[in-house]
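A quick word before the example. In earlier lectures we treated sequence and structure as two separate objects. From today on, think of them as two lines of the same record. Here is RNA polymerase sigma factor written that way.
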Amino acid sequence: MSILLENHIAELLKERNEKAISLLYEHYGDTLYGVAFKVVRNEDLAQDILQESFVKIWKKSDSYDPTKAKLFTWLFRITRNTAIDKLRSANTKSEKEIQMDISDVYSLGSEGIKPDLIDVQENLEKIDLKYQIVLDALFFQGMTQQEASEELNIPLGTIKSRLKIGLRELRKIYGASVALAFLVRLLTQ
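And the structure line, produced from the sequence above:
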């Protein structure tokens, strides 16, 4: 990643510009997911940690100081610390199932989509049916991941995977900024 792009993203973060999240996800999302996965060794939990890390990054964006660390180093530390905290929390719950935090990003409903950006629901037909069903349940019917899992009789891990892949497919069709509008909505609430 070029220094200019990194500086641009850092500036957008300081300005609380929503485009920063799209750029962060596009350029750092896979790497930060890898950081989380390396700590917890669980795909679903690593996805949750990545989302939680992006929320923390947004909320702490004014605390980033480029004189103290590169942007990636700062992002890495937030993600790694979030993963370690999740792991410690899971270890203190003896023989109990880890309860994932359900985020509002999965229960936005149709009011969470800005019609002037795009009519995603109308264009869902362009992606595979199994992803359409999950995206429709989560974003347009307002279900949580757990509710969608129960209603559709699909394992929770599969719901999460299909959500991630479905968003990736929408991103291919519309570009990163529109496909990530759901995540940005969460961060700006």
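Notice the following. Residues 63 and 112 are 28 Å apart (CA to CA). We will return to this example when we discuss secondary structure assignment.
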